[in-house]
Amino acid sequence: MISKEEILSFGDKIDEIREEIAKEIVGQETVIQQLLTALIAGGNVLLEGVPGLGKTRLVRTLSKVASLPFSRIQFTPDLMPADITGTNIIVKTEAGNEFRFQPGPLFASVILADEINRATPKTQSALLEAMQEQSVTVAGVSRPLGDPYFVLATQNPIEQEGTYPLPEAQLDRFMLKILVEFPSLQELGQIVGLTTGGEHEPVRQVTDGETLLRLRQIAQSVPIAEAVQAYALKLVLHTHPELPGAPEITRSFVRYGASPRAAQALISTARVRALMQGRYNVAFEDIDAMALPCLRHRIALNFEGLSQGRTVENVICDLLQDMAQNR
After folding, report:
1. Cross-strand bridge partners of residue 90
2. Which of 153, 209, 234, 324 makes a 20 to 30 Å CA pair with 52?
3. Which helix (H) or strand (E) segment is 204 a member of?
4. Can you list the domains of the chain with their CATH numbers?
5. pTM of the full predicted structure?
């Protein structure tokens, strides 16, 4: 049973977490809000940006604030699946030699998959089961992972050298794709002062795994009107050019659209955002706000769209504008 006090204190707890993160991360308010939204909703996050923007520092700071077991995996072309899942090793005992499972870095609560697109597809695919089923299977034995469990991956833009684009099936496992923008002049000055100056105030633990799971339960109880839910579902359907009633922009520029996981992500994150905004109901504006991070990595443009310089973000914004006019 969700109490009224828990609902009212939801925003206060989020603000407390955000304030602690701000001790280590300058600016990036939208990135932090979307990251916390995904964590409360129980999803994985893909952070994309050029090197040096603090993506790794952000994830590490979050694990400290939540006091969750943290594991960092630096993805490189020579990384093998067993390096992250773990493997059976031979151990000498009094009874003789025996096989014993040695857990890999996936056995934590917050997994930082740093520069995930620098590893080969074979190693990237080793994350799929952990991200979707929260378990790891080695030598035919499936081992459950703890809860909460988050995979927070960082990625360099695809046009950088030495990268392997994530396949569609892997991208779809990420609830949100968050773009980390370059800081402004003022923010850049604050970053330099924070990282090159003297000691600064360390972050405190202000939440834990049990609290995060309780916040998720509160968010899942947020009601959503039929009209708002239908709006979210139609948005996902309108990204498919092959379906009847697809908008002209979709038929012209989109090769394939978002999966049903996109609809699940839209509803789940919109519920969390509503509570963050101090409302106990999902509004159309919550769906609009979460559309870009939920859909940008689940839609692919066709040759016509690419040749005309369109972007996935352009298409999503045009779809939202078209649907808003026809509500």
Report:
1. 99
2. 209
3. none
4. 4-197 (3.40.50.300), 222-325 (1.10.8.80)
5. 0.88
